[in-house]
């Protein structure tokens, strides 16, 4: 205590000066049998970089300051702990570095931090990187649709399980991540591996919107326990329609989507065509029948079906495997209303082939499929991955860029054994 008090008193009277160079001598020897030596320049280098270049970790060492009487005082073996000491020390310091093995807790914490760093892209998902990826999406015809919950919808979790409970835990985790049996195989084998990783991307198209669900996990096995850090992130993109082969006068634009009828008919025609009996039709490439069971159909019914004649009395949509009729403008006061199921009048063959068994006046309501080139999809996947990593970094309180500091890599080290 006398030595510590004297040191504190002396430091309080001295002006803080950074030493130009600090020599660090490790007890570990080189291949030539000489002690491994490193030089640290506090003005231009982080201390943990010196350790990394030497192929060592700060958590593997106890660091002592040896005073003029030859007595040792243990320093906090972290980057900030040693740097703060040297910053307040005007004399050329002498440090003694003694190797010690990591404790089991430190080993586990280090592995878990490594797993988190991998899951979040090693800090590469900066705001600038995400913005650059978004610009590439928009340049290629896509537009990111903001969700109600911020940049994306999803979660990030860190959980620990006893190895004997892992099999039951996998069932719940794979459901949370919506993993296929093949993608879940890595999770199931986690108990056999020191570390495991997995990524899954699922695309879903609905109208002119493409939704991507990005899931990733990293497992760490230590002692009798398995730690898993895993997350899911969902983003939606709108793309421009691709079905441009139909004449513009036969199309209606609404809500960023393009609608028409098949066989062709002008939307402003008030005539009722009766030319469908016995007709077998295939929808044109790039178009699909409107699904009246999807969210948003109420607006389509109101603004695409009811105000227009479409050269027919009823328009045909699908709802699951059922075909339904909706009255056009010719219906007068019931325009836009439901006209009944068409299970007997129209047969659905596949997703785009129809057979009419009636002389009634019908047309199929169709919409243009979104245009998404392979290049756009690749940019979209990269954007969602970076967006997920940025979101997870923020939720896990990890750095957005750069290398993890020693304080974040390791827990508080223990005192050296006598």
Number of domains: 3
Which percent range describes the beta-strand content? 25-35%
CATH architecture of the largest domain: Roll
CATH topology of the largest domain: Bacterial Protein-export protein SecB
Total beta strands: 20
Protein name: PB1 domain-containing protein
Organism: Durusdinium trenchii
Can you characterise this structure?
With 418 residues, this protein is α+β, with helices and mostly antiparallel strands. It folds into 3 domains: 2-101, Phosphatidylinositol 3-kinase Catalytic Subunit, Chain A, domain 1 (Ubiquitin-like (UB roll)), CATH 3.10.20.90; 106-240 and 373-399, Bacterial Protein-export protein SecB, CATH 3.10.420; 248-368, no CATH class. The protein is built from 10 helices and 20 strands. It has helices at 2-13, 47-53, 79-87, 104-119, 127-139, 166-177, 185-188, 297-305, 374-395, 406-409; strands at 22-29, 35-40, 61-66, 72-75, 95-99, 142-145, 153-162, 195-206, 209-222, 225-239, 252-254, 257-262, 280-282, 287-289, 314-319, 322-327, 338-341, 346-349, 353-356, 362-368. The strands form 4 sheets. Strands 11, 12, 14, 15, 16, 17 and 20 form a 7-stranded mixed β-sheet that branches. Strands 2-1-5-3-4 form a 5-stranded mixed β-sheet. Strands 6, 7, 8, 9 and 10 form a 5-stranded antiparallel β-sheet that branches. Strand 1 (22-29) and strand 2 (35-40) form a beta hairpin. Helix 5 (127-139) packs antiparallel against helix 9 (374-395). The longest helix has 22 residues, at 374-395. The two termini are 19 Å apart. 32% of the residues are buried. Mean pLDDT is 78; it is low at 1-16 and 400-418. It comes from Durusdinium trenchii. This is PB1 domain-containing protein.
């Amino acid at each position: 205590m006398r030595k510590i008090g004297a040191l504190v008193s002396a430091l309080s009277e001295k002006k803080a000066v950074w030493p130009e160079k600090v020599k660090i001598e490790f007890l570990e020897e080189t291949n030539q049998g000489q002690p491994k030596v490193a030089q640290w320049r506090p003005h231009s280098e982080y201390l943990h970089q010196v350790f990394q270049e030497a192929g060592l970790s700060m958590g593997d060492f106890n660091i002592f300051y040896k005073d003029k009487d030859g007595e040792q005082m243990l320093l906090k073996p972290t980057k900030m702990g040693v740097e703060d000491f040297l910053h307040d020390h005007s004399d050329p310091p002498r440090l003694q570095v003694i190797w010690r093995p990591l404790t089991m807790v430190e080993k586990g914490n280090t592995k878990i931090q490594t797993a988190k760093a991998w899951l979040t892209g090693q800090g590469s998902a900066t705001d600038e990187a995400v913005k650059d990826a978004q610009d590439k999406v928009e340049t290629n015809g896509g537009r990111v649709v903001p969700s109600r919950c911020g940049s994306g919808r999803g979660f990030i979790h860190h959980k620990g399980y006893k190895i004997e409970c892992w099999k039951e835990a996998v069932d719940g985790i794979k459901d949370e991540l919506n993993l296929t049996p093949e993608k879940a195989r890595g999770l199931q084998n986690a108990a056999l591996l020191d570390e495991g990783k997995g990524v899954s991307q699922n695309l879903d198209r609905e109208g002119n919107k493409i939704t991507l669900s990005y899931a990733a996990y990293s497992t760490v096995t230590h002692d009798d326990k398995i730690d898993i850090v895993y997350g899911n992130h969902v983003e939606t993109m709108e793309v421009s329609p691709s079905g441009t082969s139909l004449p513009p006068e036969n199309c209606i634009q609404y809500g960023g989507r393009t609608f028409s009828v098949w066989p062709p008919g002008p939307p402003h025609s008030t005539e009722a065509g009766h030319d469908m009996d016995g007709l077998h039709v295939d929808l044109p490439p790039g178009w699909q029948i409107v699904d009246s069971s999807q969210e948003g159909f109420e607006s389509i019914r109101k603004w695409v079906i009811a105000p227009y004649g479409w050269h027919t009395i009823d328009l045909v949509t699908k709802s699951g495997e059922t075909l339904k009729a909706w009255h056009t403008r010719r219906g007068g006061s019931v325009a836009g209303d439901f006209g009944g199921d068409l299970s007997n009048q129209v047969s659905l063959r596949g997703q785009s082939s129809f057979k009419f068994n009636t002389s009634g006046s019908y047309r199929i309501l169709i919409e243009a499929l979104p245009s998404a080139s392979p290049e756009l999809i690749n940019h979209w996947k990269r954007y969602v991955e970076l967006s997920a990593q940025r979101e997870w970094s923020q939720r896990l309180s990890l750095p957005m860029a750069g290398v993890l500091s020693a304080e974040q890599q390791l827990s508080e080290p223990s005192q050296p054994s006598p």
